[in-house]
Amino acid sequence: MLAEVLIQLVVVVGILLPVSIALFVGRERLVRTRSEWRTRLKTAAPTIAVLLVVLLINRFARQRAPRLSREIGFHLTASFYNIEGEFILLFQSIATPETTAYFSSIYVYGYVFLIVFPVLAYFTLPDTRMFRRLLTAYALNYVIGLVLYIFVIAYGPRNVMPADVAATMLFENNPQYQYLTREVNSNTNVFPSLHTSLSATVATFAAITRSTFPKWFPVAVALAASVAISTMFLGIHWGIDVVAGMLLAALCVVLSDRLVGRWAVSELLGERLERFEDRIPWLERSE
Questions:
Q1: What span, in angstroms and rounded, lies between the C-alpha atoms of 88 and 157?
Q2: Which residue(s) pair with 19 in the sheet?
Q3: What pLDDT was estimated at residue 104?
Q4: Do 99 and 234 contact (CB within 8 A), yes or no?
Q5: Alpha carbons 150 and 63: distance in angstroms, whole number
Q6: 158-161 contacts: CB < 8 A, separation 24 or more?
Q7: What long-range pairs does 13-20 form, CB within 8 A, spacing at least 24?
Q8: Given pLDDT bands bounded at 50, 70 and 90, which one contains residue 286?
Q9: Which range is most confident: 156-170, 213-227, 235-249, 258-272?
Q10: Three-class SS state of 152
């Protein structure tokens, strides 16, 4: 069943990506990227490597995190419920077969498309800084999110009040998706909502680059908002998780701006080489 869900996901996103590239990126950027992709890839290679390492660590850590979390984590499910109450039940007022199908699709297909497309779009920019900032922000989201998942033990609404959200719960209406979600998450990993944080990260970058990709900006914001709502509509996250996800996104975007460029590998190597040459004058080329 997992293979079938993955194939379906790849097919859907595989259709959306080329259509979106044609609509939002344009032929001119694609032509230029074709001749410059090696240089851009070389410049961004360290950032890409860091993200891949983070994803790999995250993949293995998620399997062991629940055990560690039980030993050192704080149980906050009751606290979240006491603070928030039944806020997410407000979304049940718009529950119809159509809205349930929409938010279920957004949670799975829309989310994956939303975080993949900007990677391709920003790679088509001559200056790779925005591309590197996006990847850095992704890595920070995963690192900080994993740490919080270890220290915060919290069950979502679907576990606390299943009868109240049964009509819209993701796995009640689309049981096949549980084979996919359990590969990357556990039911205690709800604070913060990484679906929200990564989606909000994309929306923020879309706002920053709205002059470059004007048509993508409203689409990104609409999708990001839909993803955030879907996490509550489907009974997966509390409103508190969503707010925390937005704050995490803001933090990661700010940190990416400070880290990328300031700590760029090429710049660090250049500075160290200059210092080395200053200390050893005879290395300087004589005129």
A1: 8
A2: none
A3: 87
A4: no
A5: 11
A6: 158/187, 158/234, 158/235, 158/236, 159/77, 159/187, 160/77, 160/81, 161/86
A7: 13/109, 13/112, 13/113, 13/116, 16/109, 16/113, 16/117, 17/113, 17/116, 17/117, 17/120, 20/113, 20/117, 20/216
A8: very low
A9: 213-227
A10: strand
Structure letter (DSSP) for residue 96: -
The structure tokens listed for 16 are 């959306």
Q: Which among 123, 121, 113, 117 has a CA at the least distance from the CA of 37?
A: 123
**Mean local confidence (pLDDT), 68-97:** 80
Q: Are the beta carbons of 121 and 216 closer than 8 angstroms?
A: yes
Classified as helix, coil or strand, 75 is strand
CB 62 within 8 A of CB 142: no
Tokens representing 250 are 């803001």
For the range 35-44, what are the long-range contacts, defined as Cβ-Cβ under 8 Å and sequence gap of 24 or more?
36/126, 37/123, 40/123, 40/126, 40/128, 40/131, 43/128, 43/132, 43/266, 44/123, 44/128, 44/131, 44/132, 44/135
pLDDT digits (tens, 9 = 90+) for 185-236: 666 667 899 999 999 999 999 999 999 999 999 999 999 999 999 999 888 8
3-class state of residue 22 by DSSP = helix
β-partners of residue 193 are none
Asked if 193 and 228 count as a contact pair (C-beta separation under 8 A), the reply is yes
Domain ranges of the chain: 2-284
Beta carbons of 200 and 141 less than 8 angstroms apart? no
Answering whether pTM is above 0.90, one says no
Rounded CA-CA distance 76/71 in Å is 14
